[in-house]
Specification:
The protein is an alpha+beta fold and 196 residues long. Helices cover 17% and strands 33% of the residues. The protein has 1 helix and 13 strands. The protein has one helix at residues 2-34; strands at 56-59, 62-65, 86-89, 92-95, 100-103, 110-116, 124-127, 131-137, 141-148, 157-162, 175-181, 187-188, 193-195. Strands 8-9-6-11-12 form a 5-stranded antiparallel sheet, with no helix packed on it. A 4-stranded antiparallel sheet has the order 7-10-5-13, with no helix packed on it. It starts with a helix and ends with a strand.
C-alpha cells in the first residue's frame, strides 16, 4: 500500500512541476512579446525571413545570433580548410564522406580491389586490426588485396586512406572495381563494397 501512495505522490509532483513550467513559459513569452520587434534578437523574423542585424540569422522563425564560426561543420571554409575530421565541399565544411572502406555483405571474407584515383593524392592505407592487407599504388590506380584474419565477415570498417601529409583522403564517389570471395573461396556476386 505504501508503494502505491509513493507512486501517486510522485506523479502529482511531476504534474505540478509541468504546470509551473508551462505557466512560466507563457508568462515569459507574453512579457517578451511586448518589447519585441520583428527582426530583432530573440524576436520573430521579418516577413522575408530576414533579421535587422548582420550578426543575426533567422532560424525556426526567430532571429538568433549567427554563431557559425569559420572552419566548423555547416559553416564556410577558411581558404579551403576546415577543422579536423571535416572536409571543404562547395566552400562549406562538412563531415567527411568516402574516407572509410566498408563492406556490408556478410558472406565476404576477402577481396581484390582496384580503385581509379581520379587525381586523388593517396600515399598510404591503414587497415583495421582484424584485416591483413596490402596496397599497390601508381599514378592512376590503387590496388588492394585484403582478408579477415579471423575467418569472419568483413563488416567492420576495412581501411582508411591517407595523403602524404597524413590527412584522411575523401574518396566519396570514386570508381571501384572489386572481386570478393566467401569463406570457401567462391566469388561473391554483390559484395556491397564502398567508401563512406
Amino acid at each position: 500500500m505504501k508503494r502505491k501512495i509513493d507512486n501517486y505522490n510522485h506523479t502529482r509532483i511531476i504534474v505540478f512541476c509541468q504546470i509551473i513550467i508551462i505557466i512560466s513559459i507563457y508568462v515569459g513569452c507574453k512579457n517578451n512579446n511586448t518589447a519585441c520587434s520583428a527582426g530583432q534578437l530573440n524576436c520573430v523574423c521579418n516577413t522575408n525571413n530576414s533579421c535587422n542585424d548582420d550578426n543575426l540569422i533567422c532560424r525556426g522563425g526567430y532571429c538568433i545570433l549567427d554563431i557559425c564560426l569559420q572552419k566548423n561543420r555547416g559553416c564556410t571554409c577558411d581558404d579551403g580548410k576546415c577543422e579536423a575530421g571535416l572536409i571543404c565541399r562547395n566552400n562549406i565544411c562538412q563531415n567527411r564522406k568516402g574516407s572509410l572502406l566498408k563492406i556490408t555483405n556478410k558472406q565476404v571474407r576477402a577481396c581484390e580491389v582496384l580503385i581509379e584515383k581520379n587525381n586523388y593524392q593517396i600515399e598510404s592505407i591503414k587497415f583495421d586490426n582484424t584485416i591483413r592487407g596490402q596496397m599497390r599504388n601508381d599514378d592512376l590506380y590503387m590496388a588492394l588485396a585484403f582478408a579477415n584474419i579471423n575467418d569472419a565477415p568483413l563488416t567492420n570498417d576495412i581501411a582508411q586512406v591517407y595523403n602524404a601529409d597524413g590527412e584522411v583522403v575523401d574518396l566519396y564517389g570514386v570508381t571501384i572495381k572489386a572481386r570478393c570471395f566467401d569463406r570457401l573461396g567462391a566469388e561473391v556476386s554483390n559484395p556491397e563494397l564502398r567508401f563512406e
